[in-house]
Prior knowledge:
Layout: E1 4-9, H1 13-24, E2 29-33, H2 56-69, E3 73-76, E4 79-84, E5 90-94, E6 99-107, E7 111-114, E8 129-130, H3 133-136, E9 145-148, H4 154-161, E10 168-172, H5 179-187, E11 191-194, E12 197-202, E13 208-213, E14 218-220, E15 223-225, E16 229-232, H6 235-240, E17 263-265, H7 276-307
Parallel strand pairs: 1-2, 1-6, 2-3, 6-17, 8-15, 9-10, 9-15, 10-11
Antiparallel strand pairs: 4-5, 5-6, 7-16, 12-13, 13-14
GO molecular function: thioredoxin-disulfide reductase (NADPH) activity
Protein name: NAD(P)/FAD-dependent oxidoreductase
Keywords: Flavoprotein, Oxidoreductase
Amino acid sequence: MNRYDVVVIGGGAAGLSAALVLSRARRTVLVVDAGEPRNAPASHMHGYLSRDGQAPADLLATGRKEVRGYGGEILSGTVTDLVPDGRSGFWVLLGDGRRISARRLLVTTGLRDELPDIPGLADRWARDVLHCPYCHGHEVRDRQLGVVGGTPGAVRYAQIVRQWTHDLVYFTPPDTLTNAERTGLLARAIGVVEGTIDQLAVDDEDHLRGVQMNDGCVIPRDALFVPPRFVPNTTLLAGLGCTSDPDGWVSVDATGRTSVPGVWAAGNVVDPRAQVITAAGAGSAAAIALNADLVDDDVRNAVSDLDHGLPATSPASTQPKESR
C-alpha cells in the first residue's frame, strides 16, 4: 500500500482549497470529510468574490469535483485518531476501522458555535438568528435588529451591527454595562433592554416576531445577532500533542504549521474569525507550505537512494492505491 502524500481531515473551504492546490502539484491527496459543515444551516454565503450569494453546499460540491478532476480523492468518513507511524508519517484511523497512511497531515476540522441557553434560539440559527454581520448584515439591513449581549466584547459587537440599521436594541442582563459603554450606546441611538430573555417570539408563518422578556413584554425584532462562543474542534490535534494557546486554540505559523512536525492546520479550527473566503486562502497557503516540506523530504530520500546506489524515481510516477 502506498502512502498518500497528504491526508486532509475536513472537506470544507480550507480543506478542499488545499487539496486542489496539492493535487495540481501532482501530490497524492485524500480528503476525509464527515459531512457536517458548520455553515450547513445557511441558505447562502456572502463576501466570497465571484461566489456571493451561492449556497454553501454548491460551493463544496464544485470544490469536490475540481479536486477529483486533478486526481485527488474524497472519502466520506470520520477520523477518530491520528497516530505517528514511527517513520516520519502518520496513521489516520477511521471510525469504520480502516487506517490510512500519510506522509503529512492537514487538519481543517473547524469549530462549533456555543449559543446562549435561550429557548428557541438554536432552532432559528442561520435563519433570523445570526452571528456575522459581514456575512448577513446586508440581507437584514434597515430592519428592526437586536443583539444578545452580556458577554465580553458584546457592546463592541453591537456597535458594529449598528452600521446596518438605525433601529437596534441591545439586550443585556442588569448591571453589566459600564458608564462608557452605556454612553456609547446612547450616542449612536442603540436602545438598551436590561433584563432576562425568556424566549423568542415567533409568528404563525415561522418568522421571528420579537424577543420575549421574563416579565412577558415582547420587544419587536426582525432578526437577532448573537456573538457565540467559538469552540475549536481540536481533539485530533490535541491528541498529537500540538501546542495550544491559553484559550485552547492550536498555535500555528503563517502557513498553518503546528508545533508537531508534519502537521498543519487551517481554517476555523485555528482562526475563529475566518470567513469562507479567508479559510480557502488559508488552505491554499498551507498546501504550498506542505508541498515545499514534501519537496525537502523528497530531496533527502533521493540523496539517500543515490548513496545506496538505487535508481532515481519520478515524483509523478507513483499513484495512490486503495487504502486497506
